[in-house]
Amino acid sequence: MVTLLNVEDARRLARRRLPRGLFEYLDRGTEDEVSIAGNRAGLDAIRLAPFALEDVSQRAQDTVLFGTPQPCPLVIAPTAVAGLMSYDGEVAMARAAKAHDIPFCVSTQSMTSIETIARDSGARLWFQLYVWKNRARTFALLDRAAGAGADTLVLTVDTAVSPKREYNQRNGFGIPLKPSVRAGIDVLCHPRWFADVFLRTLRTTGMPTYAHYPDEFRTALGRAVVGDEISLATDVSWKDVAALRAHWKGRLILKGILRASDATRAIAHGVDGIVVSNHGARNLDCAPHPAHVLPAIVAAAGGRLTVLADSGVRRGSDIAKYLALGADGVLVGRAPLYGLAAAGTPGASRVIELLRAELDTTMALLGVTRLDQLPRTLQMEA
Ligand SMILES: Cc1cc2nc3c(=O)[nH]c(=O)nc-3n(C[C@H](O)[C@H](O)[C@H](O)COP(=O)(O)O)c2cc1C
């Protein structure tokens, strides 16, 4: 694993291992991919100014998120179909999270059920929710998540409809998986993934399915239609937030907030945290970069809820930048997925280790020893 020296190394390996359709689903954005370039540019434009001659011999990056201490400010973001990136991918990712003692957020659209992930990984689990049209079934799913030990619910609020990904229409990859000549050739050109992930999954658990869908709707990914009742609701509103708040006993987080006014509304609804996020530039292609809106949102929140951020993190210094802008913690999506695709649990774990080491180096070079000192390093525009 020492051969992976940075996230880009893991990305390159992932590109070689995965069928092109799957890699592009993992890696790319939407429409003209303006936002994906914007995420990089937004983080690159931030400057942190070092304090000279500070004793940095004792550095720590431990923090407390939602009352729970953790050794670094990271959370593994929810990612659909992580289970296809390596064999038993969701459990493998949760094990990497466990090794670093950080939470793993299970996606509604994961291939492995939260019960199995909990049993096989022992990781601290959050659960991400896409609201289905049938709210009763949605609440039943939440009860499963709570029963499996999830202490935090993450309601994703930025995905009212499926975004436009033309490259996936061209390369034949989609959810549900649809057999096509192009996709078949793609898979056969990646025999290692075909044997190690796809065939092995078929042998052990059968055709991959969305594990959280109710049994009567549980479509094998190969089947074209997902039942209407469990298709994503397009009428999700603050009323749903109120209903979730009343139903869910644990922490409630809204993911995909990009406006200060929505943060204030979240506080009024008794929400515990928000993720300032543009979904890793995978949804609205003209969305702002989180770094641009984060300071105003942090100011509006005024310490009344926990503010997390994500999108575009590829270096430890990116984590330092989000924290310097006022975030309490940072979610990482693609970075550990690249590691997972490259080498399973050790690959994902190695990526987290690299990010932590880079954050440590950044702190030392900035002359700070604790995360709460990072906002002082922010170089304001003249
Ligand atoms: C392959 C993939 C699948 C994703 N699936 C979900 C999902 O099911 N639910 C969700 O809320 N976010 C999903 N996301 C978004 C991530 O949770 C996160 O916001 C994003 O990846 C952060 O940007 P980054 O990848 O640049 O770190 C997904 C991201 C990726 C890369």
UniProtKB/TrEMBL annotation:
Q: Name one Pfam family in it.
A: FMN_dh
Natural source organism: Azorhizobium caulinodans (strain ATCC 43989 / DSM 5975 / JCM 20966 / LMG 6465 / NBRC 14845 / NCIMB 13405 / ORS 571)
What are the BP-aspect GO terms? aerobic respiration
Q: Which family does it belong to?
A: Belongs to the FMN-dependent alpha-hydroxy acid dehydrogenase family.
Protein's UniProt name: Putative L-lactate dehydrogenase
A single MF term (Gene Ontology): FMN binding
Query: What residues does glyoxylate bind to?
Result: 25, 165, 279, 282
Question: Which residues are FMN-binding?
Answer: 78-80, 107, 128, 130, 156, 255, 277, 310-314, 333-334
